[in-house]
Design a protein that fits this description.
The complex is a heterodimer of chains A (114) and B (110). Helices cover 0% and strands 57% of the residues of chain A. Chain A has 114 residues and is an all-beta fold. In chain A, the strands form two sheets. In chain A, strands 2, 4, 5, 6, 9, 10 and 11 form a seven-stranded mixed β-sheet that branches. Chain A starts with a strand and ends with a strand. By secondary structure, chain B is mainly β. Chain B is built from no helices and eleven strands. In chain B, the strands form two sheets. In chain B, strands 2, 4, 5, 9, 10 and 11 form a six-stranded mixed β-sheet that branches. In chain B, strands 1-3-8-7-6 form a five-stranded antiparallel β-sheet, with no helix packed on it. In chain B, a hairpin with a 6-residue loop joins β4 and β5. Chain B starts with a strand and ends with a strand. The chains are: A mainly beta (114), B mainly beta (110). Chains A and B meet through β5, β9 and β10 of A and β5, β9 and β10 of B.
Chain lengths: 114, 110
């Protein structure tokens, strides 16, 4: 069976500090990977998605970046956090063989920027 | 054209009642319509999904109704239970992406 992990679960960072959130998937090969942000009481905003190693599509211009150094690893980064970067960050995966298919979400990382 | 509009924003239902959440889309290229359930502090989990070649899909107490001509779809929760209290998101998919609605906070009162 497939499992998706995210860490850390919670993070409190000062404004201007760097960020690195990690997501890994087990039990599948060459998945599509996604980063979403969910503001308090709001919907899910797609930030980045990747269909393969080194292939990143950015959906929203901002001070965040994403990388996929390995097939089942997806990293969300920032060089300098802003207050507006606070939120619940969710990683998701789906099977690459279908153009539209279920996305499975990880447990999320709660980021608070002070 | 990429938006998915979801209503209501919040919903209070008595135990045993029917919860109904509606979504509308514009892009006719969408061909996959899932509903997700999210509990506080957790990631969303797939509840039920439908493709546009059928008008209804039922799984247990959960039913999706799909109206292709109106570009609308809805989630019906029959015999709503307090354990169903959560935020529900509709979504529409095409080309490796899902576009999510803004969510409905459902509270089922005992």
């Amino acid at each position: 069976s497939q499992t998706i992990h995210q860490w850390p679960a919670t993070l409190v960072q000062p404004v201007g500090s760097p960020l690195s959130l990690e997501c890994t998937v087990e039990g599948t090969s060459n998945p599509n990977l996604y980063w979403y942000r969910q503001a308090a009481g709001r919907g899910l905003q797609l930030l980045f998605y990747s269909v393969g190693i080194g292939q990143i599509s950015s959906e929203v211009p901002q001070n965040l970046s994403a990388s996929r150094p390995q097939d089942r690893q997806f990293i969300l980064s920032s060089k300098k956090l802003l207050l507006s970067d606070s939120g619940f960050y969710l990683c998701a995966w789906k099977r690459e063989s279908s153009s539209t298919d279920t996305q499975y979400f990880g447990p999320g990382t709660r980021l608070t920027v002070l | 054209q990429q938006q998915v509009k979801q209503s209501p924003q919040s919903l209070i239902v008595q135990k045993g009642g029917i919860s109904i959440i509606n979504c509308a889309y514009e892009n006719t290229a969408f061909d996959y319509f899932p509903w997700y359930q999210q509990f506080p502090g957790k990631g969303p989990a797939l509840l039920i999904a439908i493709r546009p070649d059928v008008s209804e899909k039922k799984e247990g107490r959960f039913t999706i109704s799909f109206n292709k001509s109106a570009k609308q779809f809805s989630l019906h929760i029959m015999d709503s239970q307090p354990g169903d209290s959560a935020t529900y998101f509709c979504a529409a998919g095409a080309t490796n992406k899902l576009i999510f609605g803004t969510g409905t906070l459902l509270a089922v009162q005992p």
